[in-house]
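Saturday, quiet lab. Running sequence design on the structure tokens for the scaffold JK sent over.
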């Protein structure tokens, strides 16, 4: 049986925390689909195409990883792709209640789809795309938080 996992998120921008979850995820499944959502807010910093491209470049050549845009419900996309695992990172306790609700809802929408939470590396628990955007917007150093390519794109956005 081929185990397919989907890892959905906004990735605006992709951070070292995301990269960590992707690398751990690769070990857990035969195929990993990294699925990029438009954004919960109306004004994303990077377009979906830019985020997909950044993810491809920072993860590098990994033959079992695919990158897709989320066009509807993640649960439907998971079902269409044959995914049985939905990966999420769990950073702090504050993430938990929302994630628990999402996990139950996604299983209801796609029976058999189990959400698996991965704990990030301890030195990456504090990294979020929101904070990275804010630090970069005001000229702070994001080199410990994101891949150098993402840091470069951020400085171009805020130049
Ligand atoms: P969303 O808007 O769907 O939460 P994000 O891009 O913020 O999109 O996050 C996507 C997933 O990556 C979530 O499961 C989130 O918990 C996880 N994630 C984000 N940052 C980190 C990090 N530093 N360490 C581990 N997981 C993370």
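Result came back. Writing it out in full:
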């Amino acid at each position: 049986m081929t185990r397919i996992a989907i890892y959905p998120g906004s990735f605006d921008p992709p951070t070292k925390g995301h990269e960590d979850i992707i690398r751990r995820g690769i070990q857990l499944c035969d195929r990993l689909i990294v699925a990029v959502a438009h954004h919960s807010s109306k004004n994303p910093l990077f377009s979906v195409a830019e985020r997909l491209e950044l993810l491809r470049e920072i993860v590098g050549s990994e033959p079992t990883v695919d990158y897709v845009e989320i066009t509807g419900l993640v649960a439907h996309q998971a079902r269409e792709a044959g995914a049985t695992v939905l990966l999420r990172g769990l950073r702090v306790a504050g993430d938990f209640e929302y994630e628990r609700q999402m996990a139950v809802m996604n299983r209801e929408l796609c029976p058999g789809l189990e959400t698996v939470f991965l704990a990030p590396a301890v030195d990456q628990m504090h990294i979020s795309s929101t904070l990275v955007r804010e630090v970069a917007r005001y000229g702070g150093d994001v080199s410990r938080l994101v891949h150098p390519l993402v840091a470069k794109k951020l400085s171009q956005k805020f130049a």
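Notes for JK: The radius of gyration is 15 Å. The chain has a mean pLDDT of 95. Ask whether to fix the surface positions before the next round.
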